[in-house]
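F.,

This is the one I mentioned.
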């Protein structure tokens, strides 16, 4: 019998979170309970051309802050055989994931894709002007998140590592501990602690980092300039930029998963339906007809 270290044993049994809803700059993606994928919103680069996907276990959507020269996006699907599918904008080779194997989780940032491998290492393709793809030396990673220009890795021991742009100190996470989930926005980073509290670093111009009083949080989602927290009781809280009403989630109930795009927020309900608020210029919030979206732990 081959010997495996305790660390390897933990990695093998680690239950990687299955992201079943994802939000980008102008589109929203949902994973259905039958392993197919649906998408709404801007499809200029084919980022919503996912109707032919099968056997998908998790999804990710490329996001970027709102500016006149941004908006192009891509969509990533993690297949049940641990390979990866991609659709959409590929100017920076961010969709060149056909040769990836043994992937257990995916994240999509601005012009890049991040893949977490079963052995705790990380793969990255796409734009690397800020060093956001310099993750080849990472080890013992159990979760990844991708912002506009920075990438975050959650380490097995509950600490966090980062690569990429740090102009607003969004990569200053070396002192974090007891973290169980991470999220990355345009210029800020969020960490969910094991006690249900939340920490944040980075730009706080829109109060998107004002999470120090949050309690009972079980999941986080990070938009370009807003932060969303899912509470144990199925309600949702939000801070940050709210110009499009993307933080108007106080009346949501029975939520089991959340996603945040540039300026919209999506919630998956316990019955497999989806709610959305915020910017809907491209129909990215037109999810009221969605049914049978896969619950995150199924």
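My design for it:
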């Amino acid at each position: 019998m081959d010997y495996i270290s305790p660390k390897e044993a933990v990695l093998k049994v680690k239950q990687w979170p299955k992201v079943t809803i994802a939000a980008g700059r102008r589109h929203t993606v949902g994973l259905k309970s039958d392993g197919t994928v649906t998408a709404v919103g801007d499809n200029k680069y084919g980022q919503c051309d996912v109707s032919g996907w099968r056997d998908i276990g998790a999804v990710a959507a490329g996001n970027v802050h709102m500016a006149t020269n941004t908006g192009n996006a891509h969509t990533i699907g993690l297949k049940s055989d641990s390979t990866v599918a991609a659709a959409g904008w590929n100017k920076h080779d961010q969709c060149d994931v056909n040769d990836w194997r043994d992937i257990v989780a995916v994240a999509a940032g601005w012009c890049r894709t991040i893949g977490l491998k079963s052995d705790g290492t990380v793969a990255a393709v796409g734009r690397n002007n800020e060093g956001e793809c310099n993750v080849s030396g990472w080890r013992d990673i159990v979760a990844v998140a991708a912002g506009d220009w920075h990438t975050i890795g959650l380490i097995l021991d509950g600490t966090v590592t980062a690569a990429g742009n740090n102009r607003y100190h969004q990569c200053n996470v070396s002192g974090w501990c007891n973290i169980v989930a991470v999220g990355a926005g345009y210029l800020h980073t969020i960490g969910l602690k094991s006690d249900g509290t939340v920490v944040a670093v980075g730009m706080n111009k829109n109060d998107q980092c004002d999470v120090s009083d949050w309690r009972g949080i079980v999941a986080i989602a990070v938009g370009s300039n807003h932060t969303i927290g899912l509470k144990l009781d199925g309600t949702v809280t939000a801070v940050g930029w709210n110009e499009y009403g993307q933080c108007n989630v106080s009346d949501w109930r029975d939520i089991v998963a959340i996603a945040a795009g540039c300026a919209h927020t999506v919630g998956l309900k316990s019955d497999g339906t989806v709610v959305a608020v915020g910017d809907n210029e491209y129909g990215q919030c037109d999810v009221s007809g969605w049914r049978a979206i896969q619950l995150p732990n199924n």
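The two ends are 32 Å apart (CA to CA).

Talk soon.
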